Amino acid sequence: MKKDPVFWMGITAAVMAAAMVCCNLFLMPEVSAPMVEYAVLRSASSEELSHGKIDINSATAYDLEQVEGIGPAVSGKILSYIAANGPVTDMEQLLEVEGIGAVKLERLKYYFFAEKA
Q1: What is the secondary structure of 15-34 as a DSSP string?
Q2: Rounded Cα distance, 60 and 10, in Å
Q3: How far is it, in rounded angstroms, from Cα 38 to Cα 75?
Q4: What secondary structure letter does DSSP report for 44?
Q5: How many other C-beta atoms are found inside a 10 Å radius of the C-beta of residue 31?
Q6: What letter would DSSP give residue 55?
Q7: How far is 31 from 33, CA to CA, in rounded Å?
Q8: From CA 63, how far away is CA 36, in angstroms rounded?
Q9: pLDDT in tens, the chain (117 residues)
């Protein structure tokens, strides 16, 4: 029994959709969505919610480690830097932290902000 081309196109689409679901081939959103949701869940201040970012001075190790390239070692160095030097007033100050270069700083700026003095 010969089926028309529309039938085969439908079958092909169904098989491809099933393969995409099975193999998780859908494009996933950037990390920014979970970070903003996490800011809401952790009772973020209205300042944080208005920016859609988290104040670097109130960030936790967990917050920092959500950024690609920031692991426990670097998040610990950032938190130690803030503890030793006081609040960060300009994100550029983080370049003084060992392990933070221009690329990581740009990633951090996407999710965090520094309150100007």
Answers
A1: HHHHHHHHHT-SPPPPTHHH
A2: 50
A3: 17
A4: -
A5: 14
A6: E
A7: 6
A8: 10
A9: 566 766 666 667 666 666 666 555 544 444 444 454 454 445 455 454 546 788 999 999 999 998 888 999 999 999 999 999 999 999 999 999 999 999 999 989 999 999 876
